[in-house]
Input
Amino acid sequence: MNAEGLKKLAIQLGFDDARVASLDHFPTQEVFLQQFVDLGRHGSMHWMERRLKERSHPQNLWSDAKSALVVAANYASDKDVFDDLSDTSKAYLSVYARRRDYHDQLKKKLKQLATTMANSGCEVKVFVDTAPLMEKPLAQHAGIGWQGKHTNLVSRHFGSWLFLGVLLTSIDLQPDPPEEDHCGQCRSCMDICPTQAIPSPYQLDARKCLAYLTIEYKGVIPQEFREPLGNRVFGCDDCLAICPWNKFAQQSTGEQAALHGRDLEELVQLSDAEFREMFRQTAIKRTGRDAFVRNVLVAIGNSGDQAYLKQVCRLLDDPAPVVRAHAVACLARLSRKHFDEEFIRRLPQEEDPLVLKEWGK
Output
């Protein structure tokens, strides 16, 4: 099957865009990745260090690969991101996480494409954010969009809201022309970032990024990032949502989970089993209950609403130190009187250094 036939089949399967990149002409990302790691901007994502060479070029991952079919699925929402951030009683969940897990959805369709190609005698490998592969530079090289100053992909047709998947093959396919950068002088994504995690155009410091802190990072959230977190309990979309290219975005028709506008009061009480049941079909399940409840506690602290005191005090006994630590920090934000009372009662029983630090010890 030729490139045009594969792209047509991809659209028929439900992808919104599909383009081809030649891997023989794909520039290596090794220098960029090495600088990123050397500066420590990958934070606790140590897996980036371990497979950096493989990640820098697809042919380091699979030496026989000649072409990449890059597919994109639109996930734009009809909800206004900034309206959602203004209601402090509700949890803000990143737009991409409000639907069925994209890893599963994209991989299922890509495997159908792979089967078609394999039946014609081609070797193929499928990737959906689960291997050391640089999907966004590949997508730009294939012409789907370009990496904006926030480092995410931007499309002239779908704005900032695209899931990406890649199918590598051992045959040469006719490539599409790469996409050019269309950011111009705009720096809206840089200016709106709540934590200044974009230190310069096309550079990201994950250690300051609220998406990283609420999803990838599992420890106690540093003090300086707690208030900027607002009511974001999973991810952050500010830099995506502000992009002016979103005026061309089309609302996704994909299936969404009923997760928009959930109350903080409901989420802070989730047990591990309840968390897994509520989010079992979404990408949120990957962060785990403890880190998720940690995030909810930060959001409750930011709300300043003492109606949550009962739930917060209950979590002072949680088995997870990171939850207890953030319950202490949240209590300090909500009521100094309750903090002092619980300090006297609980300090003699607490041994974990993370929690003791939040108690001021």
